[in-house]
Amino acid sequence: KDTKEDETKKNDTEQENSRQNETEAAVNKTTTEENKVSIVKVPLTIHYNPVEIIPLPANEKAIAKKRIQELDFMDKQKKLREEARNALEGFVYRVQDFLYDDTVQIVATEDEIEKFREKLSETSDWLYDEGEQADTQVYNTKLRELQSIEKPIQYRFKEYNERSKNIDRLTSAIKLVRDFVASIHSQPEEDRYHTKEELQSVLLTANTVEEWMNEQIEAQKKQNETQDPIITTAKVLEKKKLLDDEFVKLLAKKKPKNKKESPPKNKTDEESKEEEKPSDEHNHDEL
C-alpha cells in the first residue's frame, strides 16, 4: 500500500514539474517575441515651394525707415546723457580727492579750497536728487562751471611740480653748448671748421638764456605760490628751443673735405717736339 502511494506521489510531482517547465517556456517565448523590434522603411517625398519676400509698399517703407531713425536718435541721446552724467560724477569724485593733495595746499588758499569743496559737495547732492532726471545740457553746464574753478588751481599745481625739471632741462642745454665750444677750442687751429663768429654767437645765446633763467628764479622766490607762477613750462621751452636751434646748426655743419694736390700734367706731343727742335739744330751746326 505504501508503495502504491509513493508511486502516485512521484507521478504527481513529475506531472507538476512538467507543467511548470511548459509554462516557463511559454513565458520566455512571449518575452523574446515582445523584445524583438521590427524595422519598417517608409519612403518619404519632400516638396519644396520657394516663397518670395513681398516688398513693402513705398508709404509703409517710409514709415518704417522714419521709425528706425527715431529709435537711433533716441538711443544716441540716451548715450550722450549717460556719458555727460558719468563725466560730471567722475569729475566730482576726482577733484574731491585732488584737493587733499599736499601740493594743492601750497598753491591754493584755504578759502579757495573750502569754497571749491562746498561746490563739489553741492553738485554731488544734486546728482542723486534733482539731477537724476536732468538732461545732457544741464550736466555739461555744471561740468564746465566746476572745470573753470579747478583750472587755475590745476595750472599752478602742474607748474609747481614741473619747475625744478624745467630749470634742470635749461641748465643742461646751456652746459651742453659750453662744453661743445670748449671742445672745439681744445682742438688744433687747423682742425677746426666752425668760425669764431659762429661759436661766439651760440655762447652769447647761452649766456643770455642763463641770465634770463636766473632773473626768473629770483622773481619766483618773491612770488606767492598761490599766485600765477613766474617760471612757466611754456617760457622755459621757448628759451630752450631758441638755444637748441642755434646749437643744432653747429652740430649739423659738416667738416670740409681736404683738397687733394692735382697731379702734374703730362707733356703734350707738341711740347715734346718743341724740346727736340734745338737738339736737331745743334746737330746740323756740327755737320
Write the layout of secondary structure elements.
Elements: H1 2-35, H2 58-98, H3 102-107, H4 110-127, H5 136-185, H6 196-222, H7 233-252, H8 269-286
Write up what this structure looks like:
The structure is a single chain. The radius of gyration is 54 Å and the shape is elongated. Among the domains are: 58-158, Substrate Binding Domain Of Dnak, Chain:A, Domain 2, CATH 1.20.1270; 160-252, no CATH class. It contains eight helices and no strands. Helix 2 (58-98) runs antiparallel to helix 4 (110-127) and helix 5 crosses helix 6. With 287 residues, the protein is mostly helical.
Number of helices: 8
Q: What integer is the average pLDDT?
A: 85
Q: So what's the CATH class of the domain at 58-158?
A: Mainly Alpha
Order of helices and strands: HHHHHHHH
The fold-level CATH name of the domain at 58-158 is Substrate Binding Domain Of Dnak, Chain:A, Domain 2
Low-confidence stretches: 279-287
- Estimated helix fraction: over 70%
Fraction in beta strands: under 5%
Q: State the secondary-structure class.
A: mainly alpha
Indicate the overall shape: elongated
Going by CATH, the architecture of the domain at 58-158 would be: Up-down Bundle
Rg from C-alpha positions?
Answer: 54 Å
Q: Tally the beta strands.
A: 0
Outline the biggest β-sheet.
Answer: none
Alpha carbon gap, first and last residue: 196 Å
GO molecular function: ATP binding; ATP-dependent protein folding chaperone
Keywords: ATP-binding, Chaperone, Nucleotide-binding, Stress response
Region (Disordered): 1-34, 252-287
GO cellular component, one term: endoplasmic reticulum chaperone complex
